[in-house]
Write a structure and sequence with these properties.
homodimer, Methane Monooxygenase Hydroxylase, Chain G, domain 1, 407 residues, 17 strands, alpha+beta, Beta-lactamase, seven-stranded antiparallel beta sheet
Chain lengths: 407, 407
């Protein structure tokens, strides 16, 4: 195994009272998102940047009964060679992993710097949360998915989104002229990343927010055609839902989801320089409880928290041809709908929320399975880990079905 | 009433998606601790600076039964003229107020920008929390209160604390040469405030932590004599407990207090530039639950969470003569013990944790009363509000005793 790694690279960072200066991690010097510091920072984001909490409400946490299965004996078969369970976890820089079958925790582990009560960055899995909020506002009649974006955000009238619909944004089918030249500090991608508050501003520059940068992006090509996964779209969508609902995202998430899933903890959000919510962080079990809400199509006990039709629609999937044109080798026969990645497999669909550096939430309705997973990998792109994580998901699915049956 | 004010000065700050630039509040530009911004910031500290959470544990919250008393009809008698209840609340910039009698909430209100689920800065009330942690470590034999400080923190051997004992620090009886010239940006007080992370570093200067600044302070006069309330002492004490216990303060507070009081929420801490915990923020009800732990002398239900002897000792009070020499006009017959202010009144003692801009926690064991109060006043010194807040406490005490009896 050439890519097997121990999961303790974070040892020594931020230890001691005070930590030695050379082992401190700060946001301001850029070390926040360096590796191996990331192994620590992704478990401790609140300690490095401002955050805004999503209130869990006053109700009791909903228990996740524990019913362990010996998944650690699994062998992960893959084209590139089989992996032992530990090899699969370590070589993919796993921080923690929770497998729920019929709402019972059949496997749960915390490695490296992770712990059950620490909130871990979920990165772009947040998109799928905003997708649910948008769908919920659509069902409430607050947002018309076919309305052009500027009917809600007039600031974007002259931008790429001037003639895009809300649905185009939700399904990442916006024709956007977005220069991703990482070698040019003034490229669209760097200007955009800075305005999200994920990295510090350039020295001497004032931090500006997405509302200052998004209006400068232009259209290229057509909307509603090819799937094109571009970060600015999610910032447009989360801006849209806040403006339309006249509420901070944390309130929308708390009121519509978080207060109803029996979360043990508040989750929280990083903030952009203008105070808008960006990346959330949450505990693994609460990540799993959110997945459980998707599995049950919005039902918690005898309450329908979100309309089941939202989930029916997303589980139906998006346009597979539009998705295929984007060329994701590791995701054949997938599609994308309302900020969820949809896997079309063996006549069923499974949903995945995917986030950089190895975050995912996977929901297999047929097999009554939720897999929640945090990581802190060396490289950002999710597809780089698919060759380990997707076979791991499949090995888990087969084993759980064999041991506990599927419906 | 010349000092009556409406409590909505924060209106318009940080509102909108995004908020208009001139109504944003940031830590980096110093507006964090300006007024009226403070009316917002003290309820939203996590959104402005990094914080570290104190885990509440997995147990259920302990209910605070509600049994309302019409305190809002009270008239507050004072030498400077009587106040109506609303006048007393508004003129002291009250954010929220909770009165517990025998563990029941007889009064609870949230004004201005406050809300039940928001964590409010408690400022120097944190000292009293660290005092309990120190006492707890003393009872466990981890800290010897009579040991010189450098036996635990050798870094301070050549400083003012070189020959001070832990007890001297706990009781604020350290002879410290501390230049409080607020007009000189290089004075001890400014150097110290900057190292605590309560204000941004000077332009072009790197932020340094208390471990870099405390060793530079010199001794003046004798230890163990007069009460001298100086901020650096609490940073020495919290450094002491972390180093002695080899644990972050958040872990000590969680393990020894927060997991046992039935807190509804995690509390959190601001951080100094080196990552050490400084000011906590917590919800009002959890502030009250902490007070309830003090009232019951460390007992929660049938569990003795902290040794009762800790509270016996603190309720006995400190040296009143040593306290009197400090000249607090508003606090006659008070004393100070283990980071608690002790009011000697009518043959009993009441404890108060006091924090800048109007935070306090007041515990009257004889009357079975806990009063938890958050504010965001214009001026920092607690004594400036005593002329309103102490008569308010007394009016509450009398009324509750009359209506519900005292033991």
């Amino acid at each position: 195994m050439d890519d097997t790694r121990v999961t303790t690279e974070a040892d020594g960072w931020m230890r001691g009272f005070p930590p030695p200066p050379e082992r401190r991690i700060r946001f301001s010097d850029g070390s926040f998102n360096e590796w191996p510091q990331r192994r620590w920072t992704y478990n401790h984001v609140e300690e490095l940047v401002p955050t805004r909490a999503v209130w869990r409400g006053r109700g009791p946490a909903i228990a996740l009964p524990v019913s362990p299965l010996p998944l650690d004996g699994l062998r992960i078969d893959r084209a590139a060679g089989a992996l032992s369970w530990d090899e699969a976890l370590e070589s993919s820089y796993t921080d923690s992993l929770l497998v729920l079958h019929r709402g019972e925790a059949v496997y749960e582990t915390y490695l490296a710097e992770s712990a059950p009560h620490l909130r871990h960055l979920i990165m772009s899995c947040s998109k799928s949360m905003v997708g649910l909020i948008a769908e919920s506002l659509i069902r409430d009649g607050v947002i018309d998915p076919l309305a052009p974006v500027p009917t809600i955000l007039p600031e974007l009238a002259a931008s790429a989104w001037g003639d895009a619909t809300v649905r185009d944004v939700m399904d990442m089918r916006v024709g956007l002229d977005y220069d991703e030249d990482y070698t040019d500090p003034d490229s669209d991608v760097w200007r955009f990343i800075r305005c999200t508050g994920m990295i510090p501003p350039l020295p001497g520059q004032e931090a500006i927010g997405p509302a200052d940068v998004l209006p400068t992006f232009n259209k290229r090509g057509e909307h509603g055609q090819e799937f094109s996964y571009q970060e600015p779209n999610i910032f447009v969508l989360s801006w849209l839902v806040r403006r339309a609902a006249q509420a901070p995202l944390v309130e929308l998430v708390s009121d519509r989801i978080w207060q109803h899933i029996g979360a043990e903890h508040d989750c929280t959000h990083m903030l952009d320089p203008s105070g808008g919510e960006t990346m959330p962080a949450m505990t693994l079990r609460d990540f799993g409880r959110w997945g459980q809400l998707v599995l049950t199509r919005g039902r918690v006990g005898d309450r329908q928290v979100l309309p089941a039709e939202i989930f029916d629609d997303i589980f139906q999937g998006g346009d597979q041809a539009a998705f295929a044109s984007a060329g994701y080798d590791t995701l054949p026969d997938w599609s994308y709908r309302s900020q969820w990645w949809v896997r079309h497999i063996d006549g069923r669909t499974c949903l995945q929320a995917r986030g950089a550096y190895g975050q995912f939430l996977y929901i297999d309705q047929v097999n009554e399975l939720v897999i929640a997973r945090f990581g802190s990998a060396k490289e950002a792109p999710s597809y780089l880990l698919d060759h380990i994580l997707l076979p791991t998901i499949d090995a888990i699915t087969d084993f759980v079905a064999k041991e506990r049956g599927s419906s």
